[in-house]
Request: fold
Amino acid sequence: MSGETRSTCPYCGVGCGVMLRADGAGGLSVRGDPDHPANRGRLCSKGAALAETVGHAGRLTAPLVDGRPTDWDAALDLVADRFRDTIARHGPDSVGFYVSGQLLTEDYYVANKLMKGFIGSANIDTNSRLCMASTVAGHRRAFGTDTVPGTYDDLEEADLVVLVGSNLAWCHPILHQRLLAARQARGTRIVVIDPRRTASCDQADLHLALSPGADVAVFNRLLAAIADAGAVDADFAQNVEGLDHAIAAARAEGMDTGIPEETLREFCRMWIATPRVVTIFSQGVNQSSSGADKVNAILNCHLATGRIGRPGMGPFSVTGQPNAMGGREVGGLANMLACHLDLEDPAHRQAVQDFWDAPRMADRPGLKAVEMFRAAAEGRIKALWIIHTNPAATMPDAENVRRAIAGCDFVVVSDVTGATDTARLAHVLLPAAAWAEKDGTVTNSDRTISRQRAVLSAPGQSRPDWWMLAQVARRMGFAGFDHEGPAQIFGEYARLSGVAAGFGRDFDISGLAGADYDTLQPQRWPVGLGRSGGRFFADGRFFHPGGKARMLPVTARPPAAPASGDLPFRLNTGRIRDQWHTMTRSGLSPRLSSHLPEPFVDIHPADAAAHGIAHADLVRLHSPTGRAILRARITDAVRPGQLFAPIHWTGETAPSARIDALIPAVTDPVSGQPESKAAVVGMRRFDAAWYGFAVSDRAFRPDHAYWAIARTAAGYRAEIAGSAPVDDWEAEARRIFGPAGDAVSFCDPARGTARIALFRDGRLASALFVARRPVAVMRDHLAGLPGGDGTDVLTGLPPVGRPDPGPMLCSCFGVGVNSIVTAIEDGGLTSVEAVGECLLAGTNCGSCRPEIAQLLARQATRCAAE
Reply:
């Protein structure tokens, strides 16, 4: 279609192409790019709702110093002066940058160049440390460099795909749909290795519900079985060092996997008998105190069998952020140089210093993420620049991190909004351009570089991140930061990759140094002289000295903290289907917010019964580092003794549900990645004095023991609970919502119920429903009423004859649970495909298909019982 601009989705590492069309009024339309190799026109629910997340509401539009607006010159001069003075007084290691996978590669490059080559410290780390650092460490130990061997096309050429610690159906839905299409077309088998039953298990042939932390034990068992079956590829093994030691360690493995013996044997037989096997791994592997060993245990099996770098086979790490790969490539981690060069190699350092004409060069690794904030707490980091991330909410031991930031001498935050847990602690806030307002490149999980392009104007004084960094560098007196735009930065970066290629490194995009940046098409690196993108390592050539891969002897280690009497549960954490990280973007979409609008914890029925917890009760979790209150979901998707809670809520949306407050700052000794999926916690029911549900046409912040707020098409909705009795509910409603006009209320003190509606100019402004137990009202119906006439709002029910679609299930097409159940019952539907034909639900990204299948199964069970 004419008038459209090709760009890239800003969510996960799949890197889907999108077609954008500005509407001339600050908004845009979004559709999948049919020609992009990652998604071929498809988008998940988050990508499909991108148009609902743009706009100027709530944006930071001018620099702020100590909360007061100022101009760019004053703000940038202050930042440069404070960083320069701090370095002069305390040395270059007294400052730090904490950056983000939300940065474009060009932003990352300038930040890395400034810190490592001009300030002279390696104290720059990225929030990718929290999600993919163990993979980087594992790749470097095995291959000699951080190389992803395969491509997305391998999913469609494999005969077996193993998902390890990856809920691909919800976290990377487009890849999951490609996998399911391959399954339908050619019978690809799927195995899921995960402690809990996830949506990815829906069409899996086998689910291995391993004990937390037992991944190394599972793959050691597989490696031993490979050796015992004579399945080692003797020819390929000539290209591998350490094979015998790795097999010996695997045979000596003693950890119990928690998987039934026959199931484990079946998995080993399946893997060994299937040459075309791809092992996909993600956060369940990485976020561990033994994450690097887990990665190497997986790589060992592929190296032993030579199943790497050829069509349909190989280990494959899928990244969590849109430019986590770009950050790894450009040296955004504290222990790396740009272009996969080694920080601790003197020749590499000198080459980069010469290329940059830099006055000094960091000569040792800097502080990794957890170390950086610990150093800030101890006063060793005295000036900190945080860019596009929210560590006060997302770092482990989040309360101590918040205190560290609050106590740091000088904190700069660059972001699109000042309304984050971290931004509220900054001395200087710098307004950043957002997605669809800035230009640059990103690299996805299979090494494909794509352009992000600007189609909207940035509000107020918002500027790209590379510009802010370059301006500060120039004000600090550094040459080499006179870039006029991202195209010039990308060209410099591409030329530097040619230097890396001269050292025999894998990362080479020197062939793009003179490319037309404006028309750059998606392409997979390497792109250099005589080299083209594709799979690595099929030829048996690796990047260690001597050219061989290395297999490591690894032994399973239990999670760092043992369960105890007061802390008997293992807390697993992760994402939900329709939200992204801390919801700064995705939380703006009413569609996305309607699927699971409240923080929750999944509890096995036996554990719930033992603790007197019923479905929809509030539950208080506690750990040595913090506390949280969450809504209980009783489900056998988790095993006894295990809990699962999503990570998305912050002090802005649910202050009592900040999950990372519960997670201790325990890290992998190799990768520095925190262990985020095996904290030990205690649990008890939270007995509130009262429970409430509220809707409003304007944002509000209840001041109670528990509250969680979410966007709706008509405004906002919130769940609330209080620990103290309230005498005057009408007055309390006005305190929660702010001034409004007339009130209509119904209160029954004897039963502990109250219902209050507030009107403004004759239209419903807000409503509050209160009871001694979780309130029984039609929440999704009520969420749509603010701004209307409010007729019969206090009934809490839709008018007679008006169907209630129920809670959102298919976000792509806005189909509720009740609508699907009605269609199943009235239409006699018996398959997910039939539901899709009737209602469209499940026919776009497909991430809701497992939930539709559950509704069909319940209906079939009811019919059988009748």
In short: The radius of gyration is 27 Å. The chain has a mean pLDDT of 95. DSSP finds 26 helices and 34 strands in the chain.
